[in-house]
Amino acid sequence: MSIALYETQIHDLLYALTRSDNIEQVLKEVVELAKKTTDAEFSSLYLLENDKITHHILTSTGDFPEVARYKIQQSMKDGMAGWVYRHKQGALASDVTIDERWVSIDNNDPFGSVVVVPLMIQNRILAILTLGHSQKRFFREYHMAKAANFAERAAIIVENVRLTMRNRELGNSFVSLFNEVEQPLLIIDNDEIRYSNQVAVNELSIEKETTVFSESVIGRKIIQLIKANTNEASTSSFTLEVAEGNSYTVKTSLLQNVGLALLFSKI
Predict the structure, then answer these.
(1) Distance separating alpha carbons of residues 203 and 246, to the nearest angstrom
(2) Cα 88 vs. chain centroid, distance in angstroms?
(3) 248 and 165 co-located in one domain
């Protein structure tokens, strides 16, 4: 297989990970692909956020969790992973026994040569990837370049999956919060109903399965009132008559990256 074809396959496998919403599984797959790309025997990946490790994948140890955590802390404090994090650049140790940046934490250290590269997004370190081999001088500048190229592509994938998970968690938080509201509440985005609480479904006669706002009579009426009351402010209010003797004051609020929230208060 040609090098170009092999790298294309690696790229395709990385890209396929964007469909996942399981960050742990994505990190494991990234580590395995990194090993294949560089012919590494061992690898680890630390995912960071706000200077703290939120996830880690280790393929070179069978240590107890407490021991593994200690090794991670030491590698970030005094070892090459920490050096890469502080300097925001990759590092190559062809022979770890003569490279002062590498810290051997125990007598069973299997590493002979090591490549460590950062996964970065806009000068922000997203993760630290360590690739190791038992043979000294196995890794050379060629491997370093391949690892750096892989890290550049992998960073985009990992960041996309992490943002997808965060948006989903945020959405779940919104739903939990909105379900506590005792008044009718809708969130629309253009003509799409993104959320409606049960009170809105019951009182405004909006079918739960309806996603297009203008398909309902009440939806078309509200859209007209929104257009008539549009201004530069992020909030507004108007009166809506659903039926004779059944009216609401409707307060609207624009939620950034979510949609337009409509809260109904009976008059």
Answers:
(1) 10
(2) 21
(3) no
